[in-house]
Amino acid sequence: MLFIKSKFRGGVHPKDFKDISRDEKLLSIDPGDEVIIPLVQHIGAPAAPNVKKGDKIVRGDIIGTPSGFISSLIHSSVAGTVKDIDLRPHPLGKNMMSVIVSPDTQAEERSSYKPKPQQQVDALSSKDIVSLVQKAGIAGMGGASFPTHVKLSPPKGKIIETLIINSAECEPYLTADETLVRNHAGEIIKGAKAIQKAIGAKRLIIAIEDNKPEAISVLRKALFEEGAIELIVLPTRYPQGGEKQLIQAVLYKEVPSGGLPMDVQALVQNTATAFAVYEAVYYDKPLIERVVTVTGHNLKQPGNYRIKIGTKLRDVLSQAGYEENPSSLAVMGGPMMGLPVIDMDTPVIKSTSGILIIDKVRLKKEFPCIRCGRCIEHCPMGLSPTEIASSFNRKDMDGLNDLHVTDCIECGCCSYVCPAGIPLVQYLKLSKWELRKNAQKKS
Amino acid sequence: MPKKNHDNKIIQSAPFISASDSVTRIMWDVVISLIPAIALSIYFFGIASAFIIMVSVASCVAFDSFCISFRTNKNISFGSPFDGSAVITGILLAFNLPATVPWWLVVISSAVAIIVTKHFFGGIGKNIFNPALAGRIFAMHAWPDYMSASWIPPRSQWEDLQASFFSLDNSPVREAFQSYATPLAHLKDGALAKMPALSDMFLGNIGGCLGETSVLALLLGALFLLFKKRITLTIPLTYIGTVGLLTWIFGGQKLFTGPFLFHILGGGLVLGAFYMATDMVTSPYTAKGQFIFAALAGVLTTLIRLKGGFPEGVSYSIFFMNALVPIIDRYTRIRIYGTRKEKEKNG
Q1: Each residue of A300-325: pLDDT tens digit?
Q2: Straight-line distance from the first to the last Cα atom of chain B, in angstroms, rounded to the nearest whole number
């Protein structure tokens, strides 16, 4: 593998710590005495609640309806009673409108999903598949949470030639996609084929990084009977699982600045999303639970858990054997792009791929930039983070535009490598925010 | 950037892991890499060399902490006098001085290097010019007697050197050290017959500034820096290569007969190329920019050495190119992902 150079530029290769949670077993976690299901779990307009306090609901019932084209349905992950509809902690770090449900464990038993025969699935048209995906409320499960049915309905005239299933899972510590592959490779492939059918792609590629040998061999076996699906094993490097980087690594193409993957006739879907599509198409099952890596250095039972959407972090962590301790920090997502958790009542949502317990690092005062250029060298987008940071400090909006800060994918490589400890990615995020604010003022 | 949570505890934001490296480590690695050259300079020029280096380092660190103590903005770090950067400036400044200089010349040059060149421009990371080079150039113009007219052969006159170091006027220098010339001075005069053996030039057994003579020691340190990934070869190879090529073509009586090895080994080129031009703060960000920076510095050095009034041109060339770094950076930015077509259309 030494001689294979990754095809995307920049990036970093941190120690991955995947062994902590790496295991074939998929464990499960019970929701606590209430689940908090936010009405915002996707990019776009928030869903509007269609239940009220005191309503009895069963698992899979719709509790939020889309309020725009780019929006998503929200389903209840448990059977029970609607306790309240109110502002509750959200992984994004602020309180958001959520439906709070008290689960009723006896009612749980009654609702289950039955598989459809293969012929029935084969008879589905591409429109049928998209509408099943929409009905299941699926939103990208890799992190960006773009409503999947929108992604599967490209505007007229756009042809999508290649579908890439993203199993790269380049974030250190996380093994959720890997474990999903090891347990459900066949189902993921079926889901991927359904997506392929929906968009009419000719090529179907599954891309995975070479630090997951078990998952690769499972995929090889599963793909042995299938023709026409390519498995591409990539040398491990972060952020290979970024949509733009993956397209560059797999297809040697660059998505134009400001454009979408479909501009290079490609579509990327996350592994977990493909699995959710499988469940939606074969079982009519909405997205109400997902596999989450629960990991970190001081957990008793790190591993991968099937967790119901809305389960509070507190309940997850207590079942994974975590003792709260002031020197640790809980993070939702991976260590490179995850969000710090402020409130332990924050729920698991559709895009939560991992819960990570990490040691708090003493915050150092940032040292002045010594122009070492590492942030530029490692930026996968070819940006110049240090120059962007200084333009930001000067409030030089034109400079920020010239430096293409809007192309930043916020992967955090710049902050990771900076020897001066400058939080560069935060400067870039703030710059993007300032630019957006400025543009709004003008219009 | 820290964000406060409900309990007023400071929490971090992503990324939560980082490559374990720091500016201080980078700087001290450079200091370590200079140790072989320090040892050999003491071997060739005696205890006076140790005095010069110590005074230079001590005054640089003192001026640095003096300037930092004046910074009042508590939210911004201005570095620390012990981050290693002032120590590097001190060593490199001493390396750029002849063994015959008195202590006060060293102190004043350090003040120019640290106070004027580093802190007037904003402190560590903000300086446009390499502080050690600015200190040397200042000394060359303020005290030409000491800086370019008084050389000694290696391993000789150590007592005279010490007397000169502690003296306040320049009479010891005038009396004791007037008879020796550096290889570059011979080259300037066209006296190729008087050139020392190449092996002596490689080991450092020649006249010159404290740290520049021993190519061997400098390369040892450079290997360490390369191994630790503190420098890349772009700047040193381009710089030395350009000077070598141009002096080979134009340095002799006829074209393509120039004594390029003498030019590479005889003066401050190796010191300048590996330790001064590679200074992160005062060199371009990208490999492309670094290539342009180093190639132009090589052209300038050759011009000064062959056509200019001074035998040596390394410090002026790097100093001049330092001023061009912002504009080089501006035009050598990396192509941003997804802008290929845009460029093809425009260009």
Answers
A1: 999 999 999 999 999 999 999 998 88
A2: 39
